[in-house]
Specification:
Length: 381
């Protein structure tokens, strides 16, 4: 408000002096007989020229864009001839959820304005270039840090805006670029956004919420008003906001194959993989289709001819490479400790399921082929 009031005060002498000049040209000077000024003669163009020039000085304003200012904008407010805004970012919480296999995330967008005008604040005539800086805690693996109850996550952050190519990963508390203003300004709100990418091995990040507070700085370069010749030094506007990434508990079982039992011994095994986000502990349980989800695990005559022709079998599991063998009771969960931190166990599986027949199980068998569908279910602890 103070700047607008000053602008009006400066306009009063201009108008007063202009009309006083017209009055003197038409009616003569009121200075007295010692220095008389003859009245203006209305012949030819002698009257119109100074009058037209004076009226142009009073009423001409250069064309421009009158900005509809939003309460969500942060403006430097230091110069009546420029606008440097960051809108819809200050005080915001920019949140994303981690999806397995997706390391890059674009955060919700905001907008920027960087322009210069003439005489009137908020009237933009010319885009003015700008540069940006992102301040925040540095990550242990580079880039920036997001903190959670389980520790920290390192992320790279890039800037997209002003129709330019995506910036390289920003460096905490350093201008991009140091010696120039790489982004073209605009006379109206221009869309911008930040994107984050994980530096930390994604699968090793423990489930939880990770966040931190950052400050985005936007510096407009020098600007000189074309008609008033007044210049505004480079100015910087700030917006403080929060970035949050939520990592959900993930678990995956893979690599299971059919198992055949044959004489001698009637036992066999299959190795498989259990991945958990961040390597958290997991539970496992087994259910038999023929056994009905409780009681003994059972094989059924295949193809079924005699109802009730079944053979019981045993199931146990072990952690590889050297964990103990744990017998499973149908429908009951057993704790197996930490899962693998690569989704398909990379080079080697981390679990084994053993299937065997107890002694005497086939003594009363009525056929030579029996089958069952065994379901293994895993869940995070």
């Amino acid at each position: 408000m103070a700047r607008i009031a000053q602008s009006k005060v400066r306009a009063i002498p201009l108008a007063s002096s202009c009309f006083a000049a017209i009055k003197r040209m038409i009616f003569g000077s009121a200075a007295g007989p010692t220095n008389p000024t003859p009245p203006l003669r209305c012949t030819g163009n002698s009257f119109h020229k100074p009058l037209i020039i004076c009226l142009l000085t009073l009423f001409f304003e250069p064309a421009g864009t009158v900005l509809a200012r939003s309460s969500s904008c942060r403006d430097t407010g230091n110069s009546p001839y420029t606008v440097t805004d960051v809108c819809s970012l200050d005080g915001q919480s920019l949140a994303v959820s981690y999806n397995s296999g997706t390391p890059d995330y674009e955060l919700p967008s905001f907008s920027t304005v960087s322009c210069g005008g003439d005489k009137k604040k908020d009237v933009c005539l010319t885009p003015v270039n700008f540069r940006i800086k992102l301040s925040g805690p540095a990550g242990t693996l580079g880039g920036y840090a997001l903190q959670g109850a389980s520790g920290g996550v390192s992320v790279n952050i890039t800037f997209d805006g002003a129709g330019a190519a995506t910036s390289p990963p920003l460096t905490p508390d350093e201008w991009y670029q140091t010696s120039s203003y790489p982004y073209t300004g605009s006379t109206a709100a221009a869309s911008a956004s930040l994107s984050i990418s994980l530096i930390s091995a994604a699968a090793s990040i423990a489930p939880g919420t990770y966040s931190n507070t950052f400050t985005f700085s936007m510096e407009r370069s020098n600007y000189c008003s074309p008609s008033s010749k007044k210049c505004a030094a480079a100015e910087t506007v700030f917006a403080t906001f929060q970035i949050t990434i939520t990592v959900d508990p993930l678990i995956r079982i893979s690599g299971l194959n059919d198992i055949s039992l044959s004489s001698p011994g009637y036992s066999n095994h299959d190795d498989f993989c259990v991945f958990t986000q961040g390597g958290v502990s997991f539970l496992i349980k087994a259910t038999s289709e023929t056994g009905g989800g409780s009681g003994p695990f059972k094989l059924q005559e295949s193809p079924l001819v005699v109802s009730g022709d079944e053979i019981e079998y045993l199931v146990d599991v072990e952690k590889l490479p050297s964990g103990p063998s744990i017998p499973l009771i149908q429908g009951q969960s057993e704790s197996m400790g930490a899962g693998a931190t690569s989704e398909d166990c990379s080079t080697s599986n981390n679990m084994r399921v053993n299937i065997s027949l107890p002694a005497g199980a086939i003594d009363n068998a009525k056929t030579t082929s029996y089958t069952d569908t065994l379901t293994l279910t895993v869940e995070t602890e």
